[in-house]
């Protein structure tokens, strides 16, 4: 059967307004008051309760306050430790418990709260493969999460760092090095940066991930119109194809499937676009350098060999590392990775272009032989297909390469 990677998404710390007796409707230009309280007392005056003391310390005159994923905006007219006056920049209807963002500002909230720890335990108990860490500011945030995972006996769970804020963008290089993958959270980036900067931010983040050989996810409003429509817009299709050309590993749907009216159609359309263009688009690729490890050089050599032969790549791996390295070069050929470890196969599904197959053998030589037999039984591998078969010993600079012509077997998988 097919393997799927499970990614648990931590919500992360957020500043939310309190409970409102009734929704507050405002028009652009109106002045609204935020008060230090847990809930509103009702009445006609437009008071918004905010129980978070740290927010009052951080908010200053002329700050822009955003709600509802940036659709609601206010400019601060004055601010004290107990009251904030702000002018509405847009028409809005404010409801209880809405998250607020101070554009371009970091409130210094901890990335992992007690609520986060409870969610992490649930992810571990349910054998998730990756966990997404929100509002990552530095490598210490990732180290803290990794420490929690180790204490829970889940050291193999991968960490996907979500890049959402200016400080995350500023420390991007060290975050990429420390994480197992990166998620470009376009929605949050669009609240901290001018919207017209988001495309260049996406391109820059994706390019750095590709150059460092780390998988990268792009999320938010890929097919946003399909929340209410059974078909995407032309510009959304172009957006998806652009992400493919940049070298993205994963395209992540959010509101389209979480609250949309057409979740199945949305997934179908995204798959349709990817299948149409993935084979003909040449994504941005990284190259080896003088600093590249032996493992990376070997993987680059495997990719070059396979492409020069018009071959597919078959790799046997226990930990997944060899397959990860090969996939990081975005080869223009199929990659089929075999392992006796189902957890390894599931984690590999985060990588672009990797197909997986389970084998029973745990020894390298027997494993690569079993993979070759299984390839001969694949219905979608033509007879006499050339395959570059490989494996690398873990923690040893020893790598094996074979070139085979796959002969179709009669008992197909």
Key words describing this protein structure:
413 residues; alpha/beta; TIM Barrel; M1 Pyruvate Kinase, Domain 3; Pyruvate Kinase, Chain: A, domain 1; 3 domains; 7-stranded mixed β-sheet; 6-stranded parallel β-sheet; 34% helix
Write a concise synopsis of the structure shown:
With 413 residues, the chain is of the alpha/beta class. Helix content is 34%, strand content 23%.
Report on this model:
Helix content is 34%, strand content 23%. Strand 19 (385-392) and strand 20 (399-406) form a beta hairpin. The chain has 14 helices and 20 strands. The protein has 3 domains: 7-11 and 109-277, Alpha-Beta Barrel (TIM Barrel); 18-97, Beta Barrel (M1 Pyruvate Kinase, Domain 3), CATH 2.40.33.10; 294-406, Pyruvate Kinase, Chain: A, domain 1. The strands form 4 sheets. Strands 2-10-6-7-8-4-5 form a 7-stranded mixed beta sheet, with no helix packed on it. The protein has a 6-stranded parallel beta sheet with strand order 1-11-12-13-14-15. The chain is of the alpha/beta class.
Whole-number average pLDDT? 93
Q: State the share of residues found in helices, binned by percent.
A: 25-40%
Strand content: 15-25%
Instruction: List the strand order in the largest sheet.
Output: 2-10-6-7-8-4-5
Instruction: Just give the CATH class of the largest domain.
Output: Alpha Beta
Oligomer kind: single chain
CATH topology of the largest domain: TIM Barrel
Q: Per CATH, which architecture of the largest domain?
A: Alpha-Beta Barrel
Task: Name the overall outline.
Answer: elongated
